[in-house]
TrEMBL record:
This is Putative secreted protein (Por secretion system target). NCBIfam families: Por_Secre_tail (TIGR04183). The keyword Nucleus does not apply. SUPFAM superfamilies: Carboxypeptidase regulatory domain-like.
Length: 219
């Protein structure tokens, strides 16, 4: 009987030691919370994105490492201990190849274009004789359902193309998937089900023309 009691206690201790805990937290920078920041348990496919208030909940084990990332910020890794609530602050400085922001001037005939590269290098220029109506009325690519609970999306473009190249970038700025489609029809499937929950950027080049990027959220 004594041996059985010791065995039961040992089993209970083992189960307790590897039991998962519910970890909650908030991701922010110095002044604001960060929506859609990616929370990933390192060396696994388990993850989640923060909500509109920068909050998250995830089940993990003590000793697991949380990898926290957000576009434009440095990644942060946290080894979990007994703490069940985390206040995570990210620092600006993540690597970006290039980001282009377009803004129309008051006359609607000129466009102000700002291009920012990695670190803090930016340039601003003005292009005239821009067809404002064409740009404003352009039908954007559509992605649905978005958010997607299983990581499978349907991409629909505004017209048919002979060749469409699609690249998918994660919140760390890494290209995780490339594909090329010939005679692109009504829609095509985008599948990130093998990757963790979070935010992804879908970049599209159709017949050599860069289309507007789309933010895809795997919830």
């Amino acid at each position: 009987m004594k041996k059985i009691t010791i065995l039961i206690l040992a089993l209970c201790f083992t189960v307790t030691s590897i039991a998962q805990i519910l970890v909650t937290g908030v991701v922010s920078n110095d002044s604001i919370t960060l929506e859609s920041a990616s929370i990933l348990i390192k060396n696994s496919t388990k993850g989640i994105a923060t909500n509109s208030k920068g909050q998250f909940k995830i089940e993990a084990k003590p000793g697991d490492t949380l990898s926290v990332s957000y576009i434009g910020y440095e990644n942060k890794e946290i080894v979990l201990n007994k703490d069940k609530h985390l206040e995570i602050k990210l620092i600006e400085g993540g690597k970006l190849k290039a980001a282009v922001v377009n803004g129309f001037l008051n006359d609607r005939k000129s466009i102000c274009r700002a291009v920012c590269y990695s670190e803090t290098r930016c340039g601003v220029g003005i292009e005239t004789s821009v067809n404002y109506k064409l740009l404003s009325n352009q039908v954007r690519p559509k992605l649905f359902p978005n958010p997607s609970s299983n990581g499978v999306f349907q991409l629909k473009l505004n017209e048919d193309y002979d060749e469409v190249k699609i690249s998918i970038v994660n919140s760390s700025g890494q290209i995780i998937q490339n594909s090329t489609h010939q005679k692109f029809g009504e829609k095509v499937t985008i599948d990130v089900s093998q990757f963790a929950s979070g935010i992804y950027i879908i970049n599209i080049i159709a017949d050599g023309k860069q289309l507007e990027s789309i933010k895809a959220i795997r919830s």
